[in-house]
Design brief:
Blueprint (H helix, E strand, L loop, with lengths): L7 H8 L9 H4 L16 H6 L4 H16 L3 H13 L4 H10 L2 H7 L6 H9 L3 E3 L2 E2 L12 E4 L7 H8 L10 E4 L4 E4 L14 H8 L2
Antiparallel strand pairs: 1-2, 1-3, 3-5, 4-5
């Protein structure tokens, strides 16, 4: 399974903002909270921070930021972009919807993992079911009406006990429903743009791929 192995704090420094790639740990301990760590990484980070980005550079940074938030590599991200362009509707919003409807992201949004990286790992280790069937593909596209649950063999693991104790620490999106007693979530609908809190200007990404 291909993943981005670049240190996560380094990725946040490169984008100049918190991407919450480590989940709750980013709230308590973040390198961007230190003055000397706010510049981009690398030998020429300080000089790079002072340069004004070109139009292309601004579009590229938005694209890279969105990729890193959802932990998607370039080829897969390009495929999502092609699919978004093929479908009816606003391309940028459709792209975000495709990313939000990934199983690993839904697991994260339900509060069953503290970060998308953790959700990806748990899905790969067959922790979850979709409509009663075990699914171990992080990029699996869920649909409205799908029911996501924790497999009974994983319910008593330490990681699930820990996540159960933290279920009320993160707000649940309007397009999801979660039963804390049964540890079962339901996808109510495809999220609209105003229900997706990802801080990105998706139109810049559309323009980047339209060049």
């Amino acid at each position: 399974m291909a993943i981005n192995s670049e240190p996560r704090c380094r990725q946040c420094r490169r984008e100049g903002e918190k991407l919450f790639l480590k989940g709750d740990r980013c709230i308590r301990h973040c390198v961007l909270d230190k003055e000397d760590r706010r510049k981009p990484p690398g030998q020429h980070g300080a000089s790079a921070a002072q340069k004004k980005l070109t139009e292309y550079g601004t579009q590229l940074r938005e694209k890279q930021k969105l990729r890193r938030i959802y932990r998607v590599l370039e080829r897969q991200f390009r495929n999502y972009m092609r699919e978004a362009e093929r479908r009816k509707g606003v391309t940028g919003e459709t792209l975000l919807q495709l990313l939000e409807m990934r199983l690993d992201n839904v697991v994260y949004r339900l509060g069953l993992a503290s970060s998308r990286a953790m959700a990806r790992q748990l899905v790969s280790h067959r922790f979850f079911t979709v409509n009663g069937r075990r699914v171990n593909i992080p990029s699996y596209q869920v649909k409205p009406g799908d029911v996501i649950g924790v497999h009974e063999s994983k319910m008593q693991t330490d990681v699930m006990k820990q996540m159960r104790s933290k279920l009320h620490t993160r707000a649940l999106p309007d397009w999801l429903q979660f039963d804390t007693s049964e540890m079962v979530g339901t996808v109510l609908a495809v999220p609209t743009r105003d229900q997706i809190d990802t801080p990105v200007q998706e139109q810049l990404i559309v323009e980047f791929y339209s060049r």
